[in-house]
Specification:
This protein has 88 residues and is α+β, with helices and mostly antiparallel strands. It is 33% helix and 25% strand.
């Protein structure tokens, strides 16, 4: 039997992709927001495609805020954008 590939939905473009193709944005227990490159850290996660395009969309449609159940300050988005640019 083929191994099931875990799919996640991008909070920017709403496409379903495998976990490995996506970037996980994590809300830690302390309430800070970090990029979880390993996908293994504890906390509430939201997934984004690896493009800054999807990050911009998620910012516009408040997809991350809905997924993480909190409001996200601009400086957090700016630091995420920097990290995304480094990864692209």
């Amino acid at each position: 039997m083929a191994k099931k590939i875990p799919l996640r939905q991008c909070v920017g473009c709403s496409e379903m992709k495998s976990k490995k193709e996506m970037m996980r944005v994590l809300k830690t227990a302390e309430g800070s927001i970090v990029l979880d490159k390993t996908g293994r850290k504890n906390g509430r996660g939201a997934y984004l495609c690896m493009t800054s395009e999807c990050l911009k969309r998620a910012r516009k449609n408040k997809g991350l805020e809905r997924s993480l159940k909190m409001s996200i300050p601009d400086e957090v988005y700016e630091s995420l954008e920097k990290e995304f640019e480094e990864n692209e």
